Amino acid sequence: MSSFNRRAFLASAAGAGMLPFLRVLPATAQTRDTLVTVFGQTINSLDLHRVGTNRASYQVAINCYDRLVGFGAKQLPSGEMSYDYDTIVPELAESWTTSEDGLTITFKLKPNATFWDGSKVTAEDVKWSLDRAVSAGGFPTTQMAAGGFFRPDQFEVVDEETINVKLDYPSKLALPNLAVPVPFIINSSVAKANATEADPWAMEYLHTTPAGSGAFKVTRWDQGQQLVYERNDAWIGGELPAVQRVIVREVPSAATRRALVERGDVQISFDIPDRDASELADKLTVHSTPIENCIHALCLNTKFAPFQDADVRKAVAYATPYDAIFEAAAYGRGAKLWGGDTEITDIAWPRAFPYTTNLDMAREHMAKSGFPDGFEVTLSISLDLVSWMEPAALLIQEAMAQIGIKVTVDRIPGANWRTVALVDKTLDMHLENFGGWLNTPCYYFFWAYQKDRLFNSSAYDNPVVHELTERTLHMAIDDPEYAPLIKQMFEIVIEDLPRIPLYQPALNVAMNGADGYEFWFHRQLDVRPLTGAGA
């Protein structure tokens, strides 16, 4: 894995004129206490639990709400700062203990923790919030289940500052799952006051009006344009942020975002294309961190008749131009996931599958398949992710033509992508980029290889893989049965190939006048540690 961090600020930035959209920024945007960041996606809700909330919106749960616990930070060998999956730190909890049988975690809350309105954070607020997370349905509830949390009766108030979290069985994922964005703690008094019989969890109210205890409040949200964070000076969930205000601007054009950060008109451009990261690395501070437990993959829908044929799937795997995709789509950033050893000797994940570009092997498998004369298929990509999906798709289209598979590339609007690709699972051949929050292979399999899971966009259904995932999900990693079972799972999906790994992507962030960036698994900007340059 590679990571880059070079700085050379542009001497001309101070004299550069503003681009037109910056005229709508508040006048405070250029002060020392304010940072301005741009990114290309749209925040569509301020409530992660709400049905339809997109990934870009998760940042509000991170920056505006606390959880009982969080993850620590560590320095990577490259010098970059990153979250630390192996270190759990307090946020609202002052301390916690786990019973000898591993079935009860008792949390003591910080006695001075308060919500933005000054009211005390109590165990009742924690219970109401966790009850909401397991009851909301959809992604939040499935995420809670990954840690062994299924029902409200698992959260028990002991007193005002003490709450028990009870498990049906011990799980290695229970504590870290309380540190991901989903189980955030809400001011339940405010939420209940704005709930209705039809909306008992105040989804409509919290969609536009957060009610938390986190490091930042939302003082303005112009949907499709910008979100403004203001520091909560009473925050006790961690070290008080150095900046008072962070303005997040939505700028769809990658070229415009690049110009803004390059000129110094904004301090941060988040999630920039790999090409921009490569070209800006000698001019600005560019953080480029391979995303843990994340894979860019070519997915073959098992509902599509040709992809039910094992030889067709292998033909596609051998025809895929991995090196060309890695250079054209990723600009060599991230990690290669092809050409791996055929023998599985460890449980590292993501891992390189043992396929390489070999047209002779591809043609041999096509000849043996039930479709020796080829077939036609649509390869779908998201317009929100064209920076890597389009070059990859065009290379795949060209390569498949050489083995008789006629590919038509279909570009789907980003607003529709989640529904057709992940919910309905109607795309016969498509590119996908799932990354697992909890850094274990069994957790990735839980989301991407189990039947009916959201990110199993290939509609893959292998009862053995499903059962092995269930067995290993909560099993301790040092359990002697764990590694052999994981290796068995690897063997099956490498043979079945519902997902063909292309590469492990990097998350790229360009900075010009800001410091303090930390990489996070959720691929959203944590604004809490940010500082002005040289602060």
Task: Give structural attributes.
globular; D-Maltodextrin-Binding Protein, domain 2; 6-stranded mixed beta sheet; alpha+beta; 535 residues; TAT_signal
What share of the residues does DSSP label as strand, in percent?
Answer: 15-25%
The description of the largest β-sheet is:
7 strands, mixed
How many distinct beta strands? 21
CATH topology of the domain at 294-504: Dipeptide-binding Protein, domain 3
Q: Look at the structure and name the CATH superfamily of the domain at 294-504.
A: Dipeptide-binding Protein, Domain 3
CATH class of the domain at 294-504: Alpha Beta
Strand order of the largest sheet: 8-9-10-1-11-19-12
Taking all Cα atoms into account, the compactness measure Rg is 24 Å
Question: What is the CA–CA distance across the termini?
Answer: 29 Å
Number of helices: 16
Describe the protein in words:
- There is one protein chain.
- By secondary structure, the protein is an alpha+beta fold.
- Among the domains are: 31-65 and 214-289 and 507-534, D-Maltodextrin-Binding Protein, domain 2, CATH 3.40.190; 294-504, Dipeptide-binding Protein, Domain 3 (Dipeptide-binding Protein, domain 3, Roll).
- The chain is built from 16 helices and 21 strands.
- Strand 4 and strand 5 form a beta hairpin.
- The longest helix is centred in the last third of the chain and has 16 residues, at 386-401.
- The chain starts with 33 loop residues before the first strand and ends with a strand.
